[in-house]
């Protein structure tokens, strides 16, 4: 019985492969070229040398990032210092009557002392209370505040990495997202960011690597563009330095 079943499976596989050959041969005939049975040679791998060496000066990186981020509905401000970042956040929170704010638990944000400056808002610091349901707290937040790990001028993208002190929910669930980008983290090309993950190695990769290019945009429902369905509908990128 086992041998009969094995023969039956072998016949099914042979029939399937024969049908596959007929299908591929038919495609080749319609394209009017010989059937390709071997993968093509690729003498060059990855980006060419001229692209790997391409880099904008700082002023051009700022301009290109700003133009690209604005083009997809984001907002950009270039601020001289973290003190100006603090003033910007406080002003926006008052302007938009932000009641709940959640932020990453990072030294740069600790030094801003938003908890003391935002008297009319409740500021939560990610993962500082084991009893707190942090995703629910992020979901109810009016503002989420994060520090960018990387930013890319050519695509107008920001990279935020997940870690125990900076959960993905902080950048995904609030209504408004504020991303603080130190100028030295703004690169020209996406490859400059991606190579850092290769160099780190598999064991050092974070749980999540998130690329953010403006507010959430969805157009897969009746081709109707909707903002803010799968993430914050308002995103501010604050370039600092």
State the gist of this model.
By secondary structure, the protein is of the alpha/beta class.
Our Rg estimate from Cα atoms comes to: 25 Å
Q: Which strand order does the major sheet show?
A: 1-12-7-4-2-3
Strand content: 15-25%
Q: Count helical runs.
A: 9
Shape: elongated
Order of helices and strands: HHHEHEHHEHEEEHEEHEEEE
Overall pLDDT, averaged? 89
**Secondary-structure-derived class:** alpha/beta
What is the CA–CA distance across the termini? 76 Å
Q: What share of the residues lie within helices?
A: 25-40%
Q: Please give the number of β-strands.
A: 12
The main sheet comes to: 6 strands, parallel
Low-confidence stretches: none
Account of the 3D structure:
The strands form three sheets. A six-stranded parallel β-sheet has the order 1-12-7-4-2-3, sandwiched between helices. The N and C termini lie far apart (76 Å). It has helices at residues 2-31, 49-52, 58-71, 82-95, 107-112, 114-117, 134-140, 169-172, 190-200; strands spanning 75-79, 100-103, 122-125, 143-147, 150-152, 157-161, 176-182, 186-187, 209-212, 217-218, 226-227, 234-240. The chain has nine helices and twelve strands. Helices cover 39% and strands 21% of the residues. Strand 10 and strand 11 (226-227) form a beta hairpin. The protein has 241 residues and is an alpha/beta fold.
């Amino acid at each position: 019985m086992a041998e009969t079943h094995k023969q039956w499976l072998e016949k099914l596989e042979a029939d399937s492969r024969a049908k596959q050959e007929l299908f591929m041969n038919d495609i080749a005939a319609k394209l009017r070229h010989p059937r390709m049975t071997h993968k093509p040679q690729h003498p060059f791998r990855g980006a060419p040398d001229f692209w790997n060496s391409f880099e904008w000066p700082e002023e051009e990186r700022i301009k290109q990032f700003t133009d690209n981020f604005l083009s997809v509905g984001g907002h950009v401000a270039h601020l001289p210092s973290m003190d100006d970042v603090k003033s910007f956040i406080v002003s926006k929170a008052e302007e938009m009557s932000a009641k709940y704010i959640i932020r990453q638990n990072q030294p740069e944000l600790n030094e801003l002392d938003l908890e003391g400056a935002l008297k009319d808002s409740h500021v939560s610091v990610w993962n500082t209370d084991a009893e707190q349901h942090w995703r629910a707290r992020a979901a109810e937040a009016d503002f989420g505040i994060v520090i960018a790990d990387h930013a890319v001028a050519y695509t107008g993208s920001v990279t935020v990495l997940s870690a125990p002190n900076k959960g993905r929910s902080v950048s995904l669930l609030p209504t408004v997202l504020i991303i603080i980008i130190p100028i030295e983290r703004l690169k020209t090309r996406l490859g400059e960011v991606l190579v850092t993950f290769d160099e780190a190695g598999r064991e050092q990769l974070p749980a999540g690597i998130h690329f953010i290019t403006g507010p959430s945009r969805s157009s897969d429902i009746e081709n109707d563009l909707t903002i803010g369905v799968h993430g914050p509908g308002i995103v501010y990128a604050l370039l600092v330095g």
